[in-house]
Amino acid sequence: MLPFLDAALRNIHKQYYDDFVDRLNYYYTTLILLFLAILVSAKQYVGQPIQCWVPAQFRGGWEQYAENYCFVQNTYFLPFDKDVPREIVERDYRKIGYYQWVPIVLAIQALLFYMPNMLWKLLNWQSGINVKAVLEMATTAHLFETNKRQNTIKNLCRYLEDTLALQADKKGRSIRVLCLRLSRSSGNYLTCLYNFIKFLYLINVCGQFFLMNGFLSTSYSFWGLQILTDLANGREWPDSGHFPRVTLCDFDIRDLGNVHRHTVQCVLMINMFNEKIYLFLWFWMFLVGSATAGNLLYWICSSMSSNFREEMIQSHLRITTDFGDTLSEKRLTQRFVRHALLPDGVLLLRFIKNHSGDMLTTELIASLFKDYVERNHLADTADPKKDLSRQSPSDNGRDADHGFFDAEKYPSDGTNGSMNAPLLPSAPVISDKNNTLKAGEKRGFASPPPAVPPKPKEHPQDDFTDRLNYYYSTLILLILAIMVSAKQYVGQPIQCWVPAQFRGGWEEYAENYCFIQNTYFVPFDTSIPSDPMKRKIQKIGYYQWVPIMLAMQALMFYLPNTFWNYMSWYSGFRLKSILQMAQEASGIDAQKKEHTINVISHYIKHSIASRTSGHNMYFPYLGAKAGRQLNNIYVTAKLLFMLNVLIQFVIMNGFLGTNYTFWGIQIMIDLVQGKEWSDSGHFPRVTLCDFEVRTMASVHKHTVQCVLMINMFNEKIYLFLWYWMFLVAICTTLNFAYWCCISFADTFDEKFIEYHLKLARKESGDVLTKVQIKEFIRQCLKPDGVLLIRFIENCASDVLATDLIDHMYR
Fold this sequence. Notes:
One of its GO terms (molecular function) is gap junction channel activity. The protein is mainly alpha-helical. The chain has 25 helices and twelve strands.
């Protein structure tokens, strides 16, 4: 089992040709399921998953035999208020044996989540487009120098033109699925396949709910919600039979020709893991299912809408060409999208945009469009006063007779320069048999694409307060979660004082039972309540959940950073790449520094222009047209950091059941005044536990006193966490206020730019007026550009930031 999981983990990795929701299914969910499968396997086959209370006459290895037998042959659940059935058939009907299969089922669920991705990788090759190679090359293109970047764009442009044009000319076989023509000749094979894969993701995640319900034999569909309802109403959901902690087991022994039947009571330690695992998985899959359903609806609508495709292309063409909104230009774009790019070409451009950014995508679309206009002599169909190409046919080193052709305007007999005409020597060789690249052609490009450079280390696109939240706090919480888990599930978290008549494994049974079924706290100067309900009210069971809660708190601290990374990426700004270049150029190499400043300057101008365009269809929100989109996203992320750390206090108080809000301060006051705060009941060291044992057709109740060693760790952990989060909350609140001021008050941006321009022009003595600086920010930088330069100053140097501002001003 474990070698299989180890091999599976090594072969699972993220890829280029998908989006975040796809990766949420085949990558993150698969890894989570495999990790949980390994965790449960370790507990089942390495630890001690079951402990049984056996009769007093059992000796030697009899107890171990009973425990092993009951684990492999299953047990049955019966509440204590019901008699044990006499009929063996009725006992068999109540048997539960799923806990043996949990690792296997988790591994199967992981495989089911990964299968649509396997199908996508297997079938996308049938489109005749090497999607993986195209996106690998596009993704690394922005890291290259100018000449190499331009050559990469030429190769991409040439490859897309040849492949898509040959698809349009090819009259291959087609398949009709859901009234859609899925064929390479119609140019929508890849698009329909991608939507079909997303549909499989949705079917899979819906099927997972039925699989879990059937596997756990639950009586209601919305199992996770019902569990939360039980907890909110004070019902003991572990007693429902879904994850029983205490079960019964029957086994027969042959002795001197006779068969003796024994019934023992067992504690299933493994079910303490299972209940938490499946509760988490239910809500995780609910989240994944909701995201997948919304994502599928979005992709189906955008794929079926020709207006969406045309508006996407027009939004990029307006940035680099004199493209307007006249009827003739719209018709020209319509012909370009419908007869040249086709749906599959637009899908590839969307992939490139998601993984390489707007800048490369815009340059690639402009090059494809220019070739299409020149190739089909369509420039005169638009406004003759405008230059839709802005370049001569030979500006990019391309042959004017090579590129897109209009499938309606030109026949496919080789005349008028159709695709049957000879290609350039450097063009990819296309096999006419299967419309795919020949096996001998590496990746299908004219020249071998450059090797993918090693993944750069992370570069800060935030400030220290952000890292205090998502990095240091998350790391601390995860370390503490691992420490407590090791103590709870590997060490001995509880030790009980049992009656003298307890023998054999009875003591271990009592300790395991008391740990998983909770204990209750009663001060020594108070009598033990005779009413079982009063004892139940005083129960404390949070210590079982401490590792889970710490891990959840760590996730909550990291979520705002995920929001920031996700939104900044999909806004089109490639912060990591730019900051990496800036950090590498902050050394003593003057030539590299000058080149980097040119690249970054061009990138900032282009990115700001693409977002402030009045026709931009992707960024009409969050202040994009005003040049404040990145600022607003960053401030929103900081607001989420602040709200999160405040919510953490509410979670801790609710989880620990404290009577006062400023718990950490009250603890310190108790210590100063000499009060034993450890005896308050929040972190009791000595507790009591009641448990019942069925023996000789009767139920015997026992009360034992236990020492919770684990609470010695918990009290120190939560005392430290309270003051740590108090410090983080102060820093985050002040930092949020500071960024609100500098983001929404133009004076701060003006002073920042003025300071660097004064440094740059100190030797020349040039003095710039405030009006000039304001105009420079308004027309060129915008608030988002200033924010980018602030990041560059933080991660590289203020010298590089000064040179960059001076270069952009000049």
